[in-house]
Amino acid sequence: xxxxxxxxxxxxxxxxxxxxxxxxxxxxxxxxxxxxxxxxxxxxxxxxxxxxxxxxxxxxxxxxxxxxxxxxxxxxxxxxxxxxxxxxxxxxxxxxxxxxxxxxxxxxxxxxxxxxxxxxxxxxxxxxxxxxxxxxxxxxxxxxxxxxxxxxxxxxxxxxxxxxxxxxxxxxxxxxxxxxxxxxxxxxxxxxxxxxxxxxxxxxxxxxxxxxxxxxxxxxxxxxxxxxxxxxxxxxxxxxxxxxxxxxxxxxxxxxxxxxxxxxxxxxx
Length: 269
Ligand SMILES: [Zn+2]
Fold this sequence. Notes:
Elements (H helix, E strand, L loop, with lengths): L3 H11 L6 E2 L1 E4 L10 H5 L4 E2 L2 E5 L2 E5 L4 E5 L4 E7 L9 E6 L3 E7 L5 E5 L22 H8 L6 H6 L9 H11 L12 H20 L40 E5 L2 E5 L6
Antiparallel strand pairs: 1-3, 2-8, 4-5, 5-6, 6-10, 7-9, 8-9, 11-12
Helix pairs in contact: 1-6, 3-6, 5-6
The protein binds zinc ion.
């Protein structure tokens, strides 16, 4: 699944269309995670793109009157082709046409989505989101306040988009290892110092991953056609029974909320 760094990489790659005129949008298959509002989409013609930004794992394409909200879901990718290219693929569901290029949204499993709205900040997908994981409003004071009313364990808390956005399973495991905090611990028992460690490691790991162009799972292709790579070294994720790089004890795997959690019993408490 594309995680926040992959979405950021995708956003940066398609930001070349900022200032360009979006001629039209063709929807080949409206049956994404939510049905695409083809009626409104069809009204888009010759619309200048004012900005392309990211909020959590959503890409926002701002036009004069509307904002397009794209989510890549599990298998979604965006790729850029010259306008004359016929290199279409199975699962190319939406095509955005520009003067010299077309931008294609491909999604085999169709958990991705395309919404069109006049007011993105009030949109149901965006209105309840927590702060960005690599921004200064996600800080130790914020986290320490937020955890007091939570009864969940550390990993679930970090993966809840209402608390902080864009931390998926891989990054949650890696952040907690780097911070030395057990994924099984109740978040409300974290000290201010623990909160600072979680925040510092979140900033560090997310920024590192963005800098490296994102980790990547088999389905993610960067929009320029390059396959992404698992470029950050993973210390615990996917390393069950292997030696902890810190203490040589075997990495443990447990299931939390139907997801695998990897951690070191000795280094994280
Ligand atoms: Zn260890």
